[in-house]
Design a protein that fits this description.
The structure is a homodimer of 485-residue chains. With 485 residues, chain A is an alpha/beta fold. Helices cover 46% and strands 17% of the residues of chain A. Chain A contains 19 helices and 14 strands. In chain A, the strands form three sheets. The first copy, chain A, has a six-stranded mixed β-sheet with strand order 8-7-6-9-11-10, sandwiched between helices. Chain A has a five-stranded mixed β-sheet with strand order 3-2-1-4-5, with helices on both faces.
């Protein structure tokens, strides 16, 4: 049984659970996610933050069900954090004790700085590296963290939340007051947060971004890592803000979010404007994943996965690669060919690492079905890898998809054209992977050819019989002259 | 380490290897397939079948490489069969002894009847049930088997093969003589084979069918189980027969098949005409899979998987389902709802079994990525299940894809319209699966509701708190009235 951990997160709007499975020391993947719109803070904002009994009971029973779910997955531990609703509640101990005594579950109430920190940890480890400012819009509060070189250097919590604003202003139609309130809160943001790329966290940003993604017909159906300009999302948000339910439904927004979407959109766009942020990258991960990673890396000095480990890629390797020795040989061979030929093929050196990833992941689709496994590998890579940009992930997936024979079709190029590099570069990289995989057709543990590049031709000196490899190499359409002996 | 078996098949045109992994007693999936166009029978047809030394050496070295590949997969056994080229060769013992003494591999030369039998076993177990006549066009011979109620009742081998006809006639442009030869050979086919649905086996039929599939823009990229009328394929074959390489390439036919495609197409269409066959279903499996299944079922009385086991579905269950108890509960619940509501929803009883499959497989996509797992489950089901028709597999996959919330999109319906039932029926089935999965939102081991159908409304009496389930049920768009208490 692999090690599994559940994280329960008690927010003001909803209570959520995630369950992760570790497949090796630093590799994990999500097994389950669920939420219930418990709204534990309901009615509290106008009562000095006092939790109401009905809301507490609802929350208790939901957490009880989540614990049952966690147990059905045989998790080793359940981590439980609570954010602003409990933070602000004078009577929170009543609730905490009830959960602790009846469910043996310890709720850790985290302050705003810790909450911002957890979102930052998740983003710093799971989005493509950048000096982001994270924005995590919740039901009761909004957290910001400033990331520099993978470390969280500042954090901030604002009393801005979707449920809070809904109850204080929006329910009474006082939208102008809501804007003034947000702008006032935003004054607390230090200048160091301005003009930075944003990483967007939380249900509001996910809902708005998902609607935008559908609206523009974005070709990759993965929200995590999706990015857009502030200008574009601000314009698009007018299709959401103060619009009737049927319009929201057409945009693909789920009905359970309708009642807080106005407050959420308002906070989001007002903050983006205030921050003078050029662009946003959406994060599917936040406080829960941050808490999980914090626990996973508790013996590390920094809250960072050791370079060059990518936890999601490692998880694919753990789960889908059978013959690791062959894969390492393939990667080594592909990179050796890259080093010999990249100038001739006019391939930027930046692609070297991506070619290595493609070699590593080239066969993972076999697990789904051997026939057409290249297409299944493509599908797996595109939907499972975090920590690289969509452009990078797509390029890796594309090399894998086409490395055994055919060229990318016109329809394929057309579909992904906004995210792909020049066709000539794609073809050059595909060729290198095809060449490496042909030379290793018979799954040897070492490279059965001696390879030299004369500057005009590639000389492959066969160190064994290599019938299968040579048969394959002879059929390969090659942009450079190959001599096999 | 799961149990793995390799099968090497020495044909007249190519030598092939498949490697299968068993995940439970009757469940297996393909790990690897490879072939080399060894053409062991090259030059033999005009020499009384005598194998030529160069061809034998080529075959030996290729088999040696295949054995290395098999060992790299740590297979427990290697089964090796040889068909017409060795069958016809007076000097075959030279070759068999060489392989046996140097590679410790025993080649079993099978006669035509056994070869037909193996193809029949593969088809009877891996295509949707039907009283097929199988046609397996090889390099040296063509086998036919007659299947009745899952058993092979007759078999036949004809000296018709692509390499044989190429060397005897086509290379010299004597196409009319080739046709006469085929027609003459076909006279040996008994009348009991006529007017029957065909299961098409072998590289020629796969190549022609794949080209046709692409040509018509068939929406499912799975060759196994693809079916068409004799009329359609006969018409299409004119685009292949005696056409220049560039036209073949445009049709997606691989260059290594160009030299035998004329002979192959001629045998295929002439036999279909002679057999007066109404339609063909393509089989991706044949002699190799038949040999593997024969070995797998060697202790059974009949060469049949016990009902209701579907080896490919069982393999998905073995590899992708973690909480089998939950899945069984979901299936039971979905079927119970079907029994209560199928009349009201006007759902044919034939869909009951497919709904059960959908319930069983509804969560398998989580293994790929939790987000959008319904879409990943759809993808897995569509590409991995054999033994059902494409229509059935697609329906199962569609129910899974849409059971958590959204309706099938217009684009989806449009793409698959030729293979889907009425939208109303799809929606009814999706609804039942959605209802069952909502009731079991918290992964209980039993159904936490008492369900009654009054004829006008569905009464769900809650046997526990069921917060998560009730929250989900209330959001479900329901075509019938539901009372929850």
């Amino acid at each position: 049984m692999a090690k599994r951990t559940a994280v329960i997160d008690i927010g003001s709007n909803s209570v959520r659970i995630v369950i992760y499975e570790k497949t090796s020391r630093y590799a994990f993947h999500l097994l389950r996610e669920d939420k219930s719109k418990v709204r534990i803070g309901e009615g509290a904002y106008k009562q000095g933050g006092m939790l109401q009994e009905a809301a507490m009971q609802r929350a208790f029973e939901t957490i009880e069900e989540f614990v049952t779910i966690a147990k059905s997955y045989k998790v080793r531990k359940i981590l439980c954090v609570a954010t602003s609703a409990l933070r602000d509640a004078p009577n929170r101990d009543v609730f905490i004790k009830r959960v602790s005594s009846r469910l043996s579950l310890n709720i850790k109430v985290i302050d705003g700085a810790q909450e911002a920190q957890l979102g930052g940890i998740a983003v710093a480890n799971m989005l493509p590296p950048n000096n982001y400012v994270t924005i995590d819009i919740g039901g009761g509060s909004t957290e910001l963290a400033s990331i520099q070189n993978g470390m969280i250097v500042e954090q901030l919590s604002l009393d801005l939340g979707t449920v809070r604003l809904k109850e204080l202003f929006c329910d009474e139609g006082r939208f102008d007051d809501a804007v003034a309130y947000i702008k006032n809160a935003a004054l607390a943001i230090p200048p160091s947060y301005l003009n930075r790329p944003i990483a967007g966290i939380g249900g509001t940003i996910r809902a708005v971004s998902m609607a935008y993604m559908r609206y523009i017909g974005y070709p990759i159906k993965v929200l995590h890592g999706f990015s857009y300009t502030t200008k574009a999302i601000t314009l698009f948000s007018k299709k959401i803000y103060q619009r009737p339910p049927q319009e929201l439904k057409l945009l693909g927004i789920k009905s359970e979010r309708f009642d807080v979407i106005d407050a959420g959109t308002l906070i989001y766009t007002t903050l983006l404007e205030h921050l003078q942020a050029p662009e946003v990258t959406v994060s599917q991960v936040g406080v829960r994943e941050g808490r999980f990673i914090q626990d996973l890396l508790r013996h590390q000095r920094h809250m960072r996965f050791p370079t060059p480990i990518n936890p999601t890629m490692q998880s694919l390797i753990d789960r889908y690669i059978d013959d690791l020795e062959y894969v390492k040989n393939l990667k080594r061979t592909a990179l050796e060919l890259f080093d010999l030929l990249h100038e001739k093929l006019q391939l930027p050196v930046a692609y070297r690492e991506l070619l290595g990833h493609a070699a590593t992941l080239s066969n993972i689709g076999v697990e789904l079905n051997y026939y057409d496994f290249e297409r299944h590998s493509f599908y797996l890579i595109l939907h499972s890898i975090y920590g690289m940009s969509h452009r990078e992930t797509l390029l890796v997936a594309t090399l894998v998809r086409y490395h055994t024979s055919k060229e990318p079709s016109e329809a394929f190029i057309q579909k992904y054209k906004t995210l792909l590099p020049k066709l000539k570069e794609i073809k050059g990289l595909i060729y290198l992977l095809a060449l490496a995989s042909s030379m290793l057709k018979a799954n040897p543990k070492t490279l059965p050819f001696e390879v030299t590049w004369t500057g005009t031709q590639l000389h492959l000196h066969s160190l064994a019989k290599n019938h299968l490899a040579i048969e394959k190499l002879k059929r390969l359409e090659s942009p450079i002259k190959i001599i096999i002996d």
